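Sorry to interrupt, but I need a hand with the structure work. Go ahead and set the record down below:
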Amino acid sequence: MDIHIRRADPTEYGRLGDLTAQAYLQDGLLTFGESDWYLGELRDVAKRAAAADVLVATRDGHLLGGVTYVPSGGPMADLARPGEAEIRMLAVARAARGQGAGEALVQACVDRAKAASDCTGIVLCTQSAMHAAHRIYERLGFTRAPERDWNPIPGEEFALLAYALPLRG
């Protein structure tokens, strides 16, 4: 069956928040585990949906994963410069991995950015351990932008790696 990408429905916010939080926890991506401050951000889909586009991947009515697409100039941007969109909080349920949901979600974000006349590129941050995600980004044409790597937790030895995809001049 096909994977469908669409905006998250408010009735799915709780499930998507749990799915996202569990994906990050299970993969060891939160520096402070269950007590990490970012866990609350991952779970708060309603907050993200109020400021950006939250997309979900489903198959036969089952939630596979989600992503937050921040349009150019959106308030949730961490890395984007003027004219750039940003991808945030990509997560796929462990049981659904390797089936194309992550790639479909990223492609949907790229398609949205391409359709926006004011968007010149799309960027994202990732952790060094997210190897499967890196392969998706590179397959879709993103390249590393090491000059844009950054540390969201001052004083901690933790850096986010930047990837960028230029869309037009």
